[in-house]
Design a protein that fits this description.
single chain; about 475 residues; TIM Barrel; 2 domains; eight-stranded parallel barrel; about 30% helix; globular
């Protein structure tokens, strides 16, 4: 489906050449995105322009005693990214969305027009499924696991289900343009409440031992995957993949083989949820919980649901080597469901800066991850602003040009890597749609965020929901 980028009234004098244009006051046609200016020029070919003639006004201009004015409408059509990206690269293009964003009609219009895959930003993380009761267990119930009764925390699926129901309805009404969902995330040191690791789900009590934690880990993975992807789930056909473990490799030296430890920085393990330190590691003191997570996911996930390891700073030389060690350790224990692990792809998050990593580094990283696990996706793509950008109009134009060039280089790297033998780059997902909703606009020690506090413009659409110059990098099919 093509989209109308802008509607510009052109006032053409019939007896002279002079004229001017302005944004029309009338409402845009159904499915159109109105913007204040036409598409900026890029290195790609300009989009095709069409001119429509509106109906003539009543009356004869000769009776008015002034020059006749003829109005025309100029439209610039922009193809949907979900059409252009697969056509050019063979990859899918996705975006992240939260429960707040999905209720924004303009964001929903962008998603349904341009993206064929989505990742929920928060709503499938452990703290969300525990009803955001991060300081205290939300209550318990009894569950059966492997023939044994287990006391477990109550889960609340409502936030995720509200979003899934909206997508399900869209897919039913638009079977030719469905949206697929990527689950994010089952096991993560951050946004998992601290009480989950303690006796009686009370963080003031001692940590449980590995045997007890294994039961909780298997129960959680089994319950979440069965609820959303099990044979009886109405959502089972929506999901194409799931992040099993997220960010388990240290940015520093870490523990054995570079695994993130419980002492990455000075934050206390008694905090309700952590930014850097891992209570998973505190209990296991090894990568055992990661291996077990992929065993349990293999046991309960449908065979066609792709299972991911997902991480950031994935192009950093030392961290990349440690991630590869972890991937190889997981692969080494592959086996049938209920017996061994399964890992299908590496999720390279892609939270990059305006300058780093280089295209060569991205290509090399993709090749190495593909060698380890076969398939790769860029899962959380966005670009941190340069130090020159201060949020003012005076610096925005220059920053937009830097962003366009940066995304062009990244897109080139993805396509170049995908041409290599035995390398599969399935697709890439932007971590959001419009700049003002980006996680980089706020600072947080839980799950990251802007480290500088400076204004950011990391995505394809601006604060007015309009495509930015970098959008046309991906809209081009040449």
């Amino acid at each position: 489906m093509k989209r109308v980028l802008s509607l510009i009234l052109v006032m053409a004098l019939s007896l002279t050449v002079a004229g001017c244009g302005n944004q029309p006051d009338n409402e845009a046609p159904s499915g159109a995105v109105e913007v204040a200016n036409p598409a900026p020029e890029t290195d790609q070919e300009k989009e095709e322009e069409t001119v429509e003639s509106p109906a003539a006004e009543d009356g004869d201009s000769s009776d008015r005693g002034d020059t006749e004015v003829e109005e025309t409408k100029e439209t610039v059509e922009v193809p949907a990214l979900r059409d252009t990206v697969p056509a050019k690269s063979g990859m899918f293009v996705g975006c992240a969305v939260t429960s707040q964003e999905i209720t924004d009609a303009k964001v929903w219009d962008i998603i349904t027009t341009h993206f064929d895959h989505v990742t929920f930003g928060n709503e499938l993380k452990p703290d969300a499924l525990f009803d955001y009761s991060v300081s205290k267990c939300p209550g318990t119930e009894t569950a059966s696991l492997n023939g044994e009764d287990l006391v477990v925390p109550k889960l609340n699926y409502s936030r995720a289900e509200g979003m899934l129901n909206k997508i399900l309805k869209w897919n039913e009404e638009n079977p030719d343009r469905p949206i697929k969902v990527r689950g994010h995330v089952l096991v993560w040191h951050s946004q998992t409440p601290e009480w989950f690791f303690h006796e009686d789900y009370d963080k003031t009590k001692p940590y449980v031992d590995k045997d007890e934690m294994n039961k909780r880990l298997e129960w959680y993975i089994a319950t979440v995957l069965t609820h959303f992807t099990g044979e009886d789930s109405k959502y089972k056909d929506l999901f194409y993949g799931w992040d099993v473990v997220n960010e388990a490799v240290s940015d520093g030296t870490g523990g054995p083989d570079g695994i993130r430890t419980d002492a990455e920085n000075s934050e206390s393990l008694s905090e309700d949820r952590h930014g850097s330190n891992s209570s998973w590691y505190h209990i296991y003191q090894s990568n055992e919980f990661i291996i077990n997570a992929f065993k349990y996911a293999n046991k309960y996930a449908p065979a066609d649901l792709e299972l991911f390891y997902n991480d950031y700073n994935e192009c950093n030389f030392n961290k990349r080597n440690n991630i590869i060690k972890l991937l190889e350790a997981i692969k080494a224990q592959e086996g049938a469901p209920g017996e061994g692990t399964r890992i299908d792809a590496m999720g390279m998050q892609g939270h990059y800066s305006i300058d780093d990593p280089s295209a060569d580094n991205i290509i090399a990283s993709i090749k190495q991850y593909a060698k380890a696990v076969g398939k790769v996706q860029i899962t959380e793509l966005d670009i941190t602003a340069s130090s020159d950008y201060d949020g003012t109009d005076a610096t925005k134009e220059a920053e937009n040009e830097k962003l366009r060039k940066r995304y062009n280089l990244i897109y080139y790297a993805l396509q170049s890597a995908a041409m290599e033998k035995d390398v599969t780059v399935e697709g890439f997902t932007f971590w959001g749609t419009v700049d003002h909703y980006s996680w980089l606009q706020s600072r947080s020690n839980v799950g990251g965020g802007s480290k500088t506090g400076l204004p950011q413009m990391p995505l394809l659409f601006d604060e007015n929901y309009e495509p930015k110059p970098c959008f046309f990098v991906f809209a081009n099919t040449k």
